[in-house]
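Good morning,

Both structures are done.
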Amino acid sequence: MSGAAWLQLAVFLGVLFALAWPLARAIDAVMAGRFAFGQRLERPLWRIAGVRPEQESGWLRYTLGLLIFNGLGLLAVYALQRLQYVLPLNPQGFGAVTPDSAFNTAISFMTNTNWQGYGGESTMGYLVQMLGLTVQNFLSAATGIAVVVALVRGFSRHSAQSIGNVWVDLTRATLWVLLPLALGFAVFFVGQGVIQNLSAYVQASTLEGGTQTLAMGPVASQLAIKMLGTNGGGFFNANSAHPFENPTALANFVQMIAIFLIPATLCFVFGRMVGDRRQGLAVLAAMTVLFVAFVVAATAFEQQGNPVLAALGADQTASALQSGGNMEGKEVRFGIHASSLFAVVTTAASCGAVNAMHDSFTPLGGMVPLVQMQLGEVVFGGVGAGLYGMLVFAIMAVFVAGLMIGRTPAYLGKKIEAHEMKMVAIAILVTPLLVLAGTAIAVMTDAGRAGIQDPGAHGFAEVLYALTSAANNNGSAFAGLSANTPFYNVLLGLAMLFGRFGVIVPVLAMAGSLAAKQRAAATDGTLPTHGPLFVALLIGTVLLVGLLNYVPALALGPVAEHLTLWTR
């Protein structure tokens, strides 16, 4: 990478950690019930809802409440889309969304995926955007925070039969964490030029004498929470490449900070909750090392450019386009460095917002976002989901280490036994099963192949990317795939649903099991889980266990396409 790219990366990480450290103290206080002002305001809400905040529950009841809560959200978003034609705040008069697209979108926003098979500004009215999609951006992010807090309570408690009150956790995460942050970021984005209005679309005259429709709408409010909540669904089809949604270089930088802010903060919260801040720093270190490696790889691959175009010396236009690297599909105002960093950030987290066309990246440049998602998006990852995913790998790492030295594995004083390892196996294997089986179904059926526009390895990579993005709840796409069809809307919708809750349920089961265990005292043979050795072990486990399932599929897609280009 160039010096400018390294400087950009260093400033990004410096600002991120500087903001995350103090924010962790606030989130820890909020989720532990030490925020006195918030508790006073919560009391009337508990009375209205009939909730007793002091009454905690075991993992099964906690999980059931979470599933019911998210299920009601799914039904609400589906109904809003289907009834859109009779709802107010629809100045363009958009009709009802088709049943299969509404099904896909309702699951997408409920699961924190925000996969969009439609163009937001040409499909959804303002009420649906605000009351349906934006609200779910808050609630799906709150779900992730609630799950990871419940899991960490499992480590920090001993001989306990409860892991918390799901309604209290969801309320506090929404009211005192997500809402204030989203309000501050929304005001900042408006100041940068992001639009926020309820106006009808504007007809503008072009320089050529024609007319162009400029979409309006409440963009800044949705932009703030879609980034902070690692949701990613854009108001505009062009997402963060649209000048109304990402108007300046500073706005672009702050959007990347927003994506990583809460995932990084939760690592510090983890250390505080278990009473050893070194534990959170070790997890954060593993995430940071992987992230830096992926940024270096993506930037280097994009700077190489396309060898086919670069070799066309007679075509001066093609040669000039590739002389500084691969600028295809990228905004000139962001360039290769900012576009590559954004692509890595958004797929390291389960965000999916994009400021460049990932489908136009070089084969290996596009493989970097793909691989990050296939690791389970644990390199910072989604709000809550990244940390509980990484803790699953941490349990796997201490289990492997225990087998190597012949000792009972333990993490944070809790013995890792058969039940925990069964839950770990389910959590790790459910997404590869969904991705690989879904990809196989898509490429073997006529309905699946009908959506593939590009032949050969790249077309296969587009399908693989779509299923990877859906099952890992990311939402970005190799957009060359025509996915807004009944086949893909149903297939990807099911992948999103089981990819989300197929991990959450075993994680909460582990939380209940760990909370009931006694804390074992550390001995001379106990593996320290806060030093460089453990960080290296954790990184190795993530790469080996998380990636090996996908190697054959990657060889058929981006690797084959790369070899085809570079052997011509």
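Second structure follows.
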Amino acid sequence: MQSPIQAYLDGLHAQLARMQGGEVANYIPELTKADPSWFSICLVTMDGAVYSTGDSAQKFTIQSISKPFVYATALADRGVKFVAGKVGVEPSGDAFNSISLDPKTGAPLNPMINAGAIATASLVAGATPEAQWQRIVDSMGTFVGRDLDIDEDVYRSESDTGFRNRAIAWMLKNFGIIDGEPMASLENYFRQCSILVDCRDLAFMAATLANGGVHPLTGRRALPLEHVERVLSVMATCGMYDFAGSWVYEVGMPAKSGVGGGIIAVLPGRFGIGVFSPPLDPKGNSVRGIEVCRHLSRDFDLHVFSRAGDPSMALGRIYTADQAPSKRQPSPQMRRYLNDNAHRIKYLCLHGFLAVDGIEYVIRRMIEMAADSSSFILDMHQVDGISESAARLLNDARLRFAGENIAVVFSRIHRRHAIKHFLSTTSPKNDRGYLSFEDNDLAVEWCENHLLGDLAMPTPDPIALVDCPLLRGLPPELLAQVDKAATVQCYRQDESILTTGQAGDGRVFFIADGHVSILVPLKNGAHQRITTLGPGMSFGEMALLGQTTRSATVVADGEVRCWVLEANDIDRLARDAPTLRIVLLENISRDMAEKLRRATQWIAALA
């Protein structure tokens, strides 16, 4: 099944691919060769799942997106105090190529403008410019997760036309910001801007920062944790140049753009985002890229100041219906089917506040299990709330699973109006709505019926009184006497057959047709169903053990027909044939042992 995240990105790409406006960068001649129609979006999660669409394999030069990563390398190599003495962290409010230097010290205002980036290129470790370049390209390769190359034509074009940057480099030398040969550092800056990447690479670079400096797939640390927040802070305040304030206000993610058409955006602990589209606005930012990030932030609640947590915490225990089946007593035929196939019903226990990243994780786990699943029960008992965008994504997934004949149902959201509201309002107009059950037992019974329907279970054979498990082992002549003594009683749907607390009259009931629910009262006046019984099953037999009052309520789930043995008839038959009472007590003991085993299984599954 296609992930709803992937479907969303495909739809967003198709929508924004029609956008017009913007111009491909022309101040570097080689960049004018970019095709304005190139467009790709990529999103990477903290555990390395990749969602991409469009021209995601198209290579382009990273340009200014390299700046935060070289700054990160300088911090790792030289330390915060040393780097802060050379490059500030204050927003300039100016364009990327502005000459923004502190009037007293000559230090660039921040590492995201060209002046600051040229300075930081000179600060990475290395005794020679060649060694410094190797350090830069190796460090950036760790962020990407692979070895990197440069576009020699773009590098040469940048170097041949970079007169303004040469002036900046000499000014930095004049103020003592660059200690060595300024042109060597400048050439390394031109090289770092000419590194070839694709949209997937950008998303992994962003995801590595979002993951605390560790690459989500390789597991290699690209940046010490103590420097990650510093890099993200500078990206948030300075990464989009003179658009930075509007960006934080509207989109709310640390980001960096490049004149090659790329943008990275970082949502710490949740996602890394890469976008590539060459046409730029007057500020040097990708027109489509900005619009993509606006949509993602709005539609998925990705603003950095919104509520967030570890996505994997949204999903707790996963178990199956063979570990925790419904409490109904199935016929032997049903039991055989369920024993072989109940593992295809999966319980997923969700936790906490469900945002988009948490739901993405849950859906991805469901997709992984889909091939061996017929139903998913989403137990919402420990869910604090759900965002509107997460509910929309969950409804989308529910409908996609339904298209593959996999049911997704909800359990235990009764009276949870905040959750029910968003699940209802985000359901598509042509959708018949989601299924919600008051408890897990009702949910799993429905899922068992769904499974049995899929398996086209044949019509069960008619049940005779002699087939009932409680009478198993009686001699044929005694069975004939029991059958003769039994009377037939019929009950309507929802009719109470027995009631909690009523005096026990010794009657034992054997179900011929239909199903009944066994209910126990709760303190709030409601009832909790503890089991469902069908043809061949019995109830009321605890009276044979001396119980004087009924301990549960028995209600007909539909039209029900029962054989009833009166206490007087049982006593009469047992006087002449003591075997009757012995066999009944043995069968009751076996039944109680089986119920205890199943209860233990439930406890183990829920522990």
